[in-house]
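To: structure desk
From: M.T.
Subject: fold request, one chain
Message: Could you run this one when you get a chance? Sequence is below, nothing fancy, just the single chain.
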Amino acid sequence: MPILSTIDHEHSEIRAVAVGPVTYADVESHLQQEKAWKSLSYREFIDGRGAGLVLTPADVRRIVEMLRSLSRESKLGRTAILVSTDYAYGLMRMLEILVEDVCQIRVFREEQEARAWLNAMSAGNSSK
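Reply: Done. Structure tokens follow.
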């Protein structure tokens, strides 16, 4: 699977690395794995710098619907997504905007900035 995850139940966080081509099916599988782990509410850091997104804007809309559905079952944890291409940034920014009423997702180009945002959020700072 192109999205490899490790879970830390003690700190309620997930670390994921996306490698190679990532499709809608990969994202769906990743979210279903989180659901099975009972960790949808955990904060998550996704390093997508090694991924080649094979997603379309229509796929992003399907991901939005999946997240909306999952949010009816569980609170969704905040997620920082690190990307390296303009295309990935644009698609993930679209996702960020479309789910802002359901969960906190933010896309970044710099790892330090992404981790700082995620850590500030976990410390109780609710600003975006």
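Reply (cont.): The longest strand covers residues 43-53. Let me know if you need anything else for the meeting.
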